[in-house]
Every structure is written in C-alpha cells, then in structure tokens.
Write a structure and sequence with these properties.
Elements: H1 5-25, H2 29-54, H3 58-88
C-alpha cells in the first residue's frame, strides 16, 4: 500500500503551524509545553515521511534523537514549572519574570 509523502508533509505542516500558533497565543505554561511537543512530533512525522520516501533509515534514526531531546525538555521544563509554581501560585507565562537578571 503506497502512501504519498505529500499527505504526510501537509499533515506535518498543519501540526507544526498549530503548535507555533499555540506557543504565541497561549499564556499557560503547560499549554506552551504541549505545543512545543506538538511541533517536535510534527518534525518527527516529516523525518519519517522523507525517510520512507527515500528508502533509507536515516530519518527514522534521527527521530529517536528528537524524542530523546523532547523527553529531556519535558522533564527539565516541568521541574522548572513546578519550582516556579510553588513560589508564584500561578501558571501564567507573564508572571514568571524571576529568570530575568
């Protein structure tokens, strides 16, 4: 069964655009993290689609590295959010200015 690469790329573009819009429009830190994860998954979909179209495994191997970075980003990011939430009692992005000099 053949799957056109264009469909996967269009879906990846739509997911990445949705993630970018969510990062710019949302004020909740958890929602921003979910949108960043959505963008990383959109890139993973594009890597797998191009890898399948070329018949090589390079893109699929690269997906494992992206997933590793995403897991580390989620763990460290959520730890920072929990630490900041304990001091501010809010998850609003604008309230977190404690990381500024």
């Amino acid at each position: 069964m053949s799957f056109p690469v264009q469909h996967a790329i269009y879906l990846s573009l739509a997911l990445f655009t949705l993630g970018v819009v969510g990062v710019f429009l949302r004020r909740n830190v958890i929602t921003v993290f979910m949108c960043i994860e959505l963008m990383l998954n959109a890139v993973n979909l594009a890597f797998v689609a191009f890898s399948r179209a070329n018949g090589a495994l390079d893109g699929q191997i690269l997906v494992f590295f992206v997933m590793t970075v995403a897991a580390a980003e989620a763990a460290v990011g959520l730890a920072i959010v929990i630490a900041l939430h304990r001091t501010k009692d809010t998850l609003d992005v604008d309230a977190f200015n404690t990381l500024k000099w």
